[in-house]
Amino acid sequence: MGLFERMIRDNVDEYMREGIRMHVMGDSSRRPVSLQKAAREAEEMTSNNSRLHLIITLCYSGRWEIVQACRELARKVQANLLRPEDIDESLLAGSLRRASRPGSSRALTC
Questions:
Q1: Is 23 helix (H, G, I), strand (E, B) or coil?
Q2: Residue 1 binned pLDDT confidence (cut-offs 50, 70, 90)
Q3: Where are the alpha helices (DSSP H) in 1-110?
Q4: How far apart are CA 14 and CA 34, in angstroms?
Q5: What is the predicted pLDDT for the residue at 104?
Q6: Rounded Cα distance, 95 and 73, in Å
Q7: CA-to-CA distance for 89 and 34, rounded, in angstroms?
Q8: CATH no. for 3-109
Q9: What confidence tens digit (pLDDT) does each residue in 12-34 have?
Q10: How much is the pLDDT for 106?
Q11: Which of helix, strand or coil describes residue 22?
């Protein structure tokens, strides 16, 4: 078991007691399967907690996040839900994953 997997498993009970919702952000395909599973389980267990939102970024970079946002916008254009000329800085910013996590109290970038 790796360090991050152990950290997640060792702390999830405390997160539950303290009302902490945990979320792991980043390219999950680059993480070991066991870490993906531990993160997914902890996210599910803590999903209804609302006192504090802890975001842990693993295998994350700003470029990765921009690529993900661009892909999401491209899919919307392909589905005729969005016109290319409607894409602007504001729309791109709203598509970023960190933007979809309002009110996050803490972020741990590793």
A1: strand
A2: low
A3: 3-18, 33-46, 62-78, 89-95
A4: 21
A5: 47
A6: 8
A7: 37
A8: 3.40.1180.10
A9: 999 999 999 999 988 988 999 99
A10: 46
A11: strand
Fill in the amino acid letter for 68: Q
| Domains in the chain: boundaries | 3-109
* Token duo for residue 42: 């902890």
Q: Which residue in this structure is represented by tokens 């007691």?
A: 17
What pLDDT digit, counting tens, does each position of 59-110 carry? 888 898 899 999 999 999 999 999 999 999 999 998 887 645 545 444 445 4
CA distances from 33 to 28, 29, 30, 39 (A): 9, 8, 9, 10
Burial class (CB in 10 A: 0-12, 13-18, 19+), 96: middle
What pTM was computed for the model?
A: 0.69
**Alpha carbons 64 and 53: distance in angstroms, whole number:** 22
For residue 13, which amino acid is it?
Answer: D
Strands 52-57 and 20-25, sheet pairing: parallel
Separation of first and last alpha carbons in the chain? 17
57 token code pair: 């970024």
